[in-house]
Design goal:
Two copies of one chain form a homodimer. The first copy, chain A, is an alpha/beta fold. Chain A folds into two domains: 197 residues, Rossmann fold (3-Layer(aba) Sandwich); 97 residues, Rossmann fold, CATH 3.40.50.1100. Helices cover 45% and strands 16% of the residues of chain A. In chain A, the strands form two sheets. A six-stranded mixed β-sheet of chain A has the order 1-2-10-7-8-9, with helices on both faces. Chain A has a four-stranded parallel β-sheet with strand order 5-4-3-6, sandwiched between helices. In chain A, helix 13 packs across helix 14. Chain A starts with a helix and ends in a 12-residue tail after the last strand. Chains A and B meet through helix 13 of A and helix 13 of B.
């Protein structure tokens, strides 16, 4: 990747996404001891940064590929993002969702025009169901986080943030599957080489933290965290980028996530998902090291179920 | 009031308030059947439009008056607004709060530098306690909604909204004490005479609705609504403005308030208080009449207690 090729991606996806605002708050700055700039992807189309990667991935398919549709397996934001991005581009999206997925999420995917297939709730079943659709329809499989075009698309949020605030000392993202963190780290390495990229990760799903330590992709035996977007593991496309360009991954407890979540909701007056609070919690945990610096936070999304809030 | 004198107020208070953003959403527009522009006073300093009126009222005091401080009785946003506005202007704020006020609100007022006096939870006790401070300290009493300078200050939100979107067909606000509605109606009559001003009011606290019908200020015997900022009644300063310039007040049920609240939270991804949802609920109830029009909503504030949400 070069700066120019990354700028080309920004330009290509621009008509299909929102340029989201960057918000800040004096009260938050006082609490954090530094200047915090929230890149608000909760205001992105369909409510999360995943719209960027999904759009870029579809745009990079050939006309012939697009005519046959795209397929993914996801119970989360990527399912909705791929459905909406596909619809915007006149492409059919096949979405494999586990039978354990909440009806509200299935309805959301259908609302964006995705064609839903329900499968048993194991990774093996999900992969096999997606593979069957690939074979039957000739649809192109797009992974939610371990795909170069998806990773590059996710990085455009950081590029916009750095365009607005070129002098950031650090950027924090949450880390789940590694698409957002990988894209952010790659973008920052090109556009702001002096800006350190950090991630926050739940103690209860600390696979990425352990992966950086061991040098190989680790998995979680369990993942009992309110940050339900972060239960997934890194992949072979984003792990090398993260190894090269991410300064450190910080673990945060469930209590710290909840406290950070409440701070953002009550002080910023914006709805963010628990995964986004993980990044802010990681900053708060390291506030001494970041004192008086300029710190960006990628707010990953704002899709929450009001009937199942953690407070 | 003239346009110029209103613009002077805008200019005078500008250094002490935020110019809040106007937000919109295609999903909300689809649901409402019109173009909706939310003036986001939830992002105002201390989280509500009350900051505008409090600031304007203090700025209109003489130096001598300011030196002796200001006093009000309020358990809500005006208590915090007056405290913060006073602190910004180097003025002492005495706040009389009922013993029934939640500790979190008392702490918030103290956090903004207000000097709190607790009194028994009746209007008579509140008024007497405030009067005693007026007499003892020589402080100027400022009413939360029935004060010309407060009313004019609240109207500046509508002026900003109309500066950003001059062609609005209608503006909706909630109505409680009548300060926001009166100020908005007065401002719109000067800056956009063709723009109709409407209010939403809870069925459970319908005093303003009945006041417009009867031609005199009515009160509520009870006010069992989740829109806790709207339990107060109109006053002799704002009622004549409302009679002259407000097109209609629409009543909404608690269910309609809750549904509107959830729509704003989940679709706009912003935290607004139930009182703000009352204005949007009133729009939704009258969507046929407003079809394809451009409609502004003054989002009154975003101070909510996450541990006591209505869902």
């Amino acid at each position: 990747m070069t700066k120019q090729s990354y700028l080309n991606i920004c330009e290509k996806i621009a008509p299909f996404i929102h340029r989201t605002p960057v918000m800040s708050s004096q009260l938050i700055n006082d609490i954090a001891g530094c200047e915090v700039f929230f890149k608000c992807e909760n205001f992105q189309k369909m409510g999360a940064f995943k719209m960027r990667g999904a759009t870029n991935a579809i745009l990079n398919l050939s006309e012939e590929q697009r005519a046959k549709g795209v397929v993914t397996h996801s119970s989360g934001n990527f399912a909705q993002a791929l459905s909406l991005a596909a619809r915007s581009l006149g492409v059919t999206a096949y979405i494999v969702m586990p039978s354990s997925a909440p009806q509200v999420k299935i309805d959301a995917v259908k609302g964006y025009g995705g064609i839903v297939s329900i499968c048993p709730p194991t990774l093996k079943d999900r992969e096999e169901s997606a593979k069957a659709i690939e074979n039957e329809k000739g649809a192109s499989f797009l992974h939610p986080s371990n795909d170069d075009d998806v990773i590059h698309g996710q990085g455009t949020a950081a590029i916009e943030l750095l365009e607005d605030y070129p002098n950031l000392n650090a950027i924090f993202t949450p880390v789940g599957g590694g698409g957002l963190l990988g894209g952010t780290a790659l973008a920052a390495s090109l556009f702001a080489p002096d800006c350190n990229v950090y991630a926050g990760e739940p103690e209860e799903a600390d696979d990425a933290y352990r992966s950086l330590k061991s040098g190989k992709i680790e998995t979680n035996d369990s993942a009992n965290t309110i940050a339900d977007g972060l239960k997934t593991q890194l992949g072979d496309r984003n792990f090398p980028i993260i190894q090269e360009h991410v300064k450190e991954i910080f673990l945060v407890s469930e209590e710290e996530i909840l406290e950070a979540l409440k701070l953002i909701w009550t002080r910023m007056k914006i709805i963010v998902e628990p995964s986004s609070a993980v990044a802010f919690a990681a900053l708060l945990k390291n506030k001494e090291a970041l004192k008086n610096q300029k710190v960006g936070i990628i707010i990953s999304g704002g899709n929450v179920d009001l009937d199942n809030l953690p407070f």
